[in-house]
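REQUEST ID: PR-0412
SUBMITTED BY: lab tech R.K.
PRIORITY: routine
TASK: structure prediction, single protein chain
INPUT:
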Amino acid sequence: MTEPPQDRAHRIAAFHAGLDGPPWRVAGWGSEALQRVRFEALTRAAGYAGGTVLDWGCGPGDLYFHLRRMNLPFQYTGVDLDPRMVERAAARGVPNVSRLPLGAPPPGRHDYVFASGIFQFADPDDPLYYLDTLEQAYDISWRAVAANFLSAQRPDAARAEDELYADPSVLGRFAAALTDRWRIDHAYHPQGADFTIALIH
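STATUS: complete
OUTPUT:
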C-alpha cells in the first residue's frame, strides 16, 4: 500500500530531521560558502543598511550571525515552523526566535524581511504559494523583502522531484505588479542554479 503524500510542512521537517553536523548543514545548504553567498545576495539585493529584521525561516540562526558580522545596528526576530530549529537557534544565543506554523502571519512589521531557503519544496495543492508568501512579506516590510529561490534554469541533473524551481521571469512580472523598485540577482550561484529577488519600498 502506497503511503499518502506528506504536506509541505511535514516534508520540510523531515528533510531537516535527516541532517546533522554544522549549522549550515542542518539548515540544508551544501556548504558554508554557498550559504554565505546566498546571505550576501539577500542583503545586497535589499540594500540592507541595518534596522529591524525578520528572518522568516530562521533555521538554526545563521543569518543572525551573518548580520552581526556586517557591523550594522539591527534588531533581529527569527521565526521557523520547525520547533527543533527554534531550539537550536536559541541554544546558540540567537535572540527573539519563535515557532511560526506554516501559513500563519509573522508578527509585527520590520524594516527588512529576509527569507532564505523557505521556498525549497513545491506544493501541488497550492502551486503558487510562494507568491502569496512574498506579497505578505512585502506588506510587513518597511524597506524591502528579499528571498532566494532554486532556479528553473538549474540543470536537470541537479534537480530533485519534489523541489520548487521558480522561473525568474514569472517572479519579475509579479514584482513589477507590486512595486516599481525590484531587482533579481541571478549571477552569484554556479550554473545559475539559484537566484534572489528583492521587492523594495
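NOTES: The chain is about 35% helix and 20% strand.
REVIEWED BY: pending
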